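Repro:
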Amino acid sequence: MDTPQPSDRLASPADSEGNDYAAADEDHSVLHADQLTGGPEENGRRQMPAVTKWLLLALAAIVVIIGAIAVAGALGGTSDQDVADAPDVVTSQQDVEGGGTVDASISLGKNAAVLTFNDVAASEGRTYQVWRVPLDGSAPVSAGTIDAADISAGNPVVIDGISTTRELAISVEAPGGAESPSLPFAVIIPTPAG
């Protein structure tokens, strides 16, 4: 007479129909869920408290964020302080057509210029647009428009990519800027490369 073998699984109606799943359940090389959940002292190791896990995850997130900020800073543009601290910085002040002045700090080594507007009125319904006038005499290339709030507040505006620029020119344009500058320019700022 055969002695029934103990089974650590529950019988299901599928087993009684000769289903192939019964043979797979007998495979003892596969861990079952009840074998994975042991007590805190299983195998001589203590489980990590949940608070510690959360602290480690928070620390890892902080490290990732700091790394992302450092990479963005390294890949980002030049700051106004970078230009001011450059050993080759050249400064000038130019009068703006319509009143006020613009202070320019230019560093070819940093490939950037910083423009700061003083007592320049931001015209209602108009915007100032900066143009790079290339050394080779080709058409001016837009460096973007300047926000009226930056002009009124005298905030420094950084213009990158000036190493092949003979001069920076500023035109007065409709909101959103223009494809080509409206003449005459409100101010022209020579660069050391020119």
